[in-house]
Design goal:
The complex is a heterotrimer of chains A (288), B (813) and C (163). Helices cover 33% and strands 26% of the residues of chain A. Chain A is an alpha+beta fold and 288 residues long. Classes of the chains: A alpha+beta (288), B alpha+beta (813), C alpha+beta (163).
Chain lengths: 288, 813, 163
Amino acid sequence: MKPAPFAYHRPESRDEALDLLAEHADGAKVLAGGQSLVAAMNMRLARPARVVDINRIGEDTFAQDGDAFAVSALVRQSDLERSPAVRDAVPLLHEALPFVGHAQTRSRATLCGSLAHADPSAELPVVATALGARMECGSRRGTRTVAADEFFVSSFTTALEPDELLARALFPLRAARTGYAFAEFAERHGDYAIASAAAVLRLREDGAVDELRLVLGGVSDRPFVVDAHACAGRPLGEEAIETLAERAGRDIDPHSDLRGSAAYRRQLASVLSRRVLAAASLDARKEG
Amino acid sequence: MIPAPARPAAPPRPSLIGQAIARKEDPALLTGHGRFIDDVSPFANTHHAAVLRSPYPHARIVSIDASAAFAIEGVVAVITGRDVERLTKPFSVGVETKIPFYCCAIDKVHYVGEPVAVVVARDRYIAEDALEAIDVEYDDLPPVVRIEDALRPGSAPLHEAVGSNVVHRRSFAYGDVEGAFAAADEIVEIEVAFPKYGSTPIETYGVIANYDSGAGTYVVHANFHGPFVLHAVMAGALRVAGNHLRIHVPPDIGGSFGIKAHVYPYIVLLAVAARVAGVPVRWIEDRLEHLQASSSSTDRLTWAKAAVKRDGTILALALDQVDNVGAYVRAPEPACLYRMHGTVTGAYKIPAVKIDNRLVTTNKLPTGLNRGYGGQEQYFTLERLVARVAKRLNLPVLDVVRRNLLRVEDFPYHAAPGSVYDAGDYGRALDAALRLADYDALVARRDAQRARGKHAGIGIGCIVEPSGSNMGYVSIALPRETRDAGLPKSGCTEAATVAIDPLGAVTVRLGTTPQGQGHQTVAAQIVAQELGVAFDAIEVIAEMDTQTSPWSIASGSYSSRFAPVASAAIQQAARKVAAKLRAIAAHELEIAREDVVLADGKASALGDPSRSVPIKRLAGLAHWHPTALPPGIDPGVYETAFFSLPILEAPDENDKVNSSAVYGFIADICYVEIDADTGRVHVESYVTVHDCGTMLNPLLVDGQIHGGFAHGIGGALFEEMAYGDDGTVLAGTLADYLIPTATEMPPLTIGHENVPSPFTPLGAKGVGEGNAMSVPVVIANAVADALGVDDVTLPLTPARVWAILRTNAEARA
Amino acid sequence: MTSCESDERHAVEMTVDGRRIRRYVSPRLLLLDFLRTECGATGVHAGCEHGVCGACTVKVDGRVTRSCLMFAIQADGGAVETVASLGTRDALSPLQEAFRARHALQCGFCTPGILVSAQAFLDSEEHPDERSVREMLSGHLCRCTGYAPIVAAVLDAAAQRER
């Protein structure tokens, strides 16, 4: 299990990194935390001709920036996990991070790397989609911002062009009367989830649903957004939760594998939806 | 004969044996100074090997073109089946089959991961580059994957010369089976399937091989731990006399649990590679190779029947068992099917037994030793059957268990198929387990949970834990006539050496190739006790060298044989040294030998400690001044003892065999609750009470129990070497083959109710494997109880349990 | 910027357990292999080479790291600490002592990685409890001990620190 040969570049700045990506648009792979990439390279499932190691470009800040909480390319998951600022500004992220791999991988793995990797079973793309995060994609051609819904295209595929770097992920700030919840089910702690769910529920002042986002992971080739429009304008009672949770199980078309059948994933989708909807509902009222 | 204990030569002093002493092994391991196989560099100019493996479960090899691989800078050699065919012959095996098993595929591949070629290169990176450059043309053949498929009359045989995928069958009957079934009030039948899984030690296989062309000797370093009977199998395959295959085992082995016995075909493969390449070769198996192509236990199908009386008495047992050994019958298979042969009645007094055994080959990884070897399969059948008997008779399981459990007065107990159980008080151990589990409260809790609509269940298991395998047991696989025609086999011989150097330093040399069990520590406890020298000053060499270490065909670390067998060899070697020291001291002090007391580094006169001589001086005399020794005492202090148990006879004319030296006992009780939403099994409490005879070091005993328990949890809930119906490997990485981690381990309560074995000098019985045998079925019993179903299949993954819940719900609806 | 073609070697310099090491490496050399073969760090063990088992865990510039998921060239200029940084045979660290007293190791193959992780955990957690210890340990596989003695040892070391 040794990687195939590759050329190595270690830029010292974001501009140098973008130059390299522009120059080697087709054969270069960005190496950040490396927790997925290097494992795949060791198995020779990934064999990039060039590796652009961005670990020394700086870009390791995370802070509020206007109406968003911005996480730069090199911010490690463990730094976010321990940050009171993240807990206060993006509670859903704070809640989900302990489920991402293990402490020993989070210490190097980056948030942006996980988003750019787009593993359909991973937690962070689900969180980003549920929150409606925006991805700042940088290249020599300029910077564009892509909504999470458009960013995750399919299994291990994002809207990033070969010459682009996911420079920052922008998360909406915690809002009033809004509840957040994340849940997943895996056979072991720290595994990729068989299924996961995140809910973001914004209530009106009268307690009715203003906006509800319910997103599932592990059941599709990308984060699956459950159609929750029918919930708007009414309180999210037990019956509504039940109806939406059932719908979550019904609307997906999951795969079967060693960890579970499609039917089992539908079941988990419903169960986890129920759990996150109930928890988000509680959280939203607590805030209100 | 079991030697009588030496006459107590001294007033009793606190024995080191039985103390919870921290290990001698630890300081090196804790500081990164262990010496594992990849830490040793025995040869200059050592190159690195990588193995090309079959991507197909079943295919003919049409051609192999390695020319592009040779063109890569740094590549020294590419070895294929043709070299292997030229330099080796098929491995021998304990059953009569016509299956040629080589260390590398010759014309056909029979499982995904089977070696097809070996590249030798300057480093492993280059070797792996070269693997990609080898062009192999395969002609794909349909695979046979499941036992049911292998049994089907039309199934295409893997090995044409055999003509069938059923490659072995034997039937046995002990006692009046027919009479018992005729007299039964009820006959309870079950069909159970047991999955294939391994032990995945964290250190993988490793081999460093050299061919000494001057001596014509293969010199190999490997993390091989026996049984050293396989040394003869390897030498035979390499077509050399045993003294031309020198195997070194490093001082540390990074876990095995049986799995590393099967590094042996790779020892032969790398020996050939070194010879062909003309350079020493290092091969460290990677994890993907390990999960595809190392070893595992068998998967087994069993149809079992019990003849029972209405009160729960089991009159007879009938077992129809089919073991799947994978692509080849790889020695010591079919031991998985026969290790428990004498013990199939477990902890119960069942006078009549019928056993029908079959082995099948399929396009899967070949099988072999695995913690619990054969025990988890056997007890899954027996303990599920006991639970089903209770259910059928509408009796509490405990009543059926107690009705049949062996009693104190039954010992030594001669089980119908031949095992001779040494000693035990099973009822006392079960009572202790019930007490520790607070059984009545557990039942109340279960019933209360059920009343609330929850799924809760209790599992019970009482099992006998055999240890110290009889080297004759596998020959039960042969018909008596064939057996009689060959060399009879018996015993469980182990050897040890104790030496004292001219300055009085004590060294012990073992043949047990430990993998973490703490043999060095216990050996030092025993020798310190016998010689009256300081524990800390004793050096214990676990490194093995087949040319210079004392060993027997049974040597090695498997079947939990250290405590019952190896400890006795160490004690006897120490006693030989002690006798010599006493003789020299008696001569020096002018007293009778039996009046010499060895303690505190001195030999002193019984009753008069002022008259003494340091052991250092006694050893010095033996080395430097042989003319001063008393008559009949040889110079030097270097004593080797070989020890076996006379009770381990060869199989008899009625096919009875006492398969193991001694028999411990375990009573387990567990309580589970199941999350109806997800199917997750929560093991809320688990109690295990052990009888392992005399505990040589209680710290290590509990360590073995915790470890065996973790393997049991893995087998019960997580682990399976799963294959697709097309023969592909489904759990090929550690992200797919799930090993329990610290967050998955349920709480474990351990109890001890020990009855020392009268058959072993120290009274010890083995303890390493019991919970690996018991936990899978005890949890299965609890889950079956919780779900109210008859059939449960391991591993009890959430998805599988939820499927049962859904079927139940549909049946109700 | 640093660049190195696939068939070239590049100079790297780092400290490993306080010793300065300077070597030429090809880009694809894993830190794991570099530490073992170039630095003689026998306390770094290859168990899976895909980041699951934790046997190769070291600290790189203070961060707990799977050395199988990092290239040696990436550690250029950095400081690597393996288990050998914790204590010596004659002066075991309190955590190592606790492992010994609790019989928290058997074969010892997974142990160095666990010690590195557990020490980093103790250094960052003021009041660890069993749950947090188990969660930290879930990033390591051990086949010998069943984990219970390891959990006890880490908690012992934490308790001893508080005394």
